[in-house]
Each structure stands twice: as structure tokens, then as C-alpha cells.
Amino acid sequence: MSRRKSAAEVFDALGERYEEVFGQVPGQIEALDWLTARLPAGARVLDVGSGTGRPTAETLVRAGCDVTGIDVSAAMVALARARVPGARFEQADVRTYTPPPGGFDAVCSFFPLLVMDQPEVAAALDRMASWTAPGGYFVMATVPGDIRGLDIEWMGHAVTVSSLSTDDHLARLADRGLEVLHHHTATFRPADDLAGPEEHLFCYARRRP
Q: GO biological process: any one (predicted)?
């Protein structure tokens, strides 16, 4: 069996191909529309796992937000800086990133937590919840399931993935002081033979003022 790859290695290799396949997930577009309708101009937003900058950072910048994106992949950060010059992008890992004082008016997390161990997924959720300022929003998407250390082939790469069940995601966010306003699951079918259908969990939450 080929060596399992880290998230940085996978996304360095995928580059703009990731955007071609996953850049228009309907549930993600809907979540961004929901979020931008609630944020004032100048809102500070963190995009965790910012990828190429599209669609998340680009949509937020167009809405007048002050956007910071972080991603473990140097190649993705370079693409994002070129595609969305109105945002700031850093090569950083959600597990070790230090946010600025005061946190963010919104934190977006679209699929960045899968290529890690299950306890790290839980800890990353805790960290992102803590970065959401009072009155701020947390919007996320993932592939749900009580999964730990599952070896798969994804987009032509051997990776090991983990996740939490839908109920565990919702309970963990509530326990960390976020009110879950809406959640739903939807099946996404990428138009690429290297990626099969995926069940996506979308969750919209807010920290009380």
C-alpha cells in the first residue's frame, strides 16, 4: 500500500484542481449567502482551510468583510493570494494557529478537519469555537461520521481520514457556548471520476452577545 499523505502534501499536489472539482458545492454557497446577509461591512472573518480562496474568501471580500485565510498547503496559499488579493492568507495549521486578540466576528470552516486524527478534529472544533467573538457566527461543513483513522483513496491520493458524527458535532459546539441555529446534510456528487459522492453536514451557529 502506498504511504498515506498529510493534508499539506495532498493539497499541494491538487492545487487549482481542487477548486475545479469542489469550488461550487451548493451547500457551501448557500451557507456563505446566509452568513454574508448577517455580517456588517468590515466584519473580521477567519476562513479555516482557505484553499484557493474561492468561493469562501472571495465571497466574503465582495461582501465587504476583513478576511484572513489560513491553510496548511503552501501551494493553496499562493493560489489564494493571487486569486483574492483583497484578503490576507497565511500558511498555518488550525491545530496551532494563534488568532489576534478579540477573535473574529465569524469563523468559516469548510472541510478542513478530515485529514487528521479524531481527537484532533474535536480539539480543532473547540479552538474555532473559542475564536468566535460574542455575537459572532461559526459556519462549518464536513463529512460526518464516527470515523477514526480510515484509509481511503481520494482524488488519486492515499489519505487517512477521521470525523465526528453529526450529533457529536452539534453537542460539542453547544457545549462550547455556540447556539446551533441550523444544520442539515446533503449529498454532493463531484463531476470527477476520482471523487465519489459525499454526504456533507452543514452547520450554522452563533455565540450569544
A: methylation
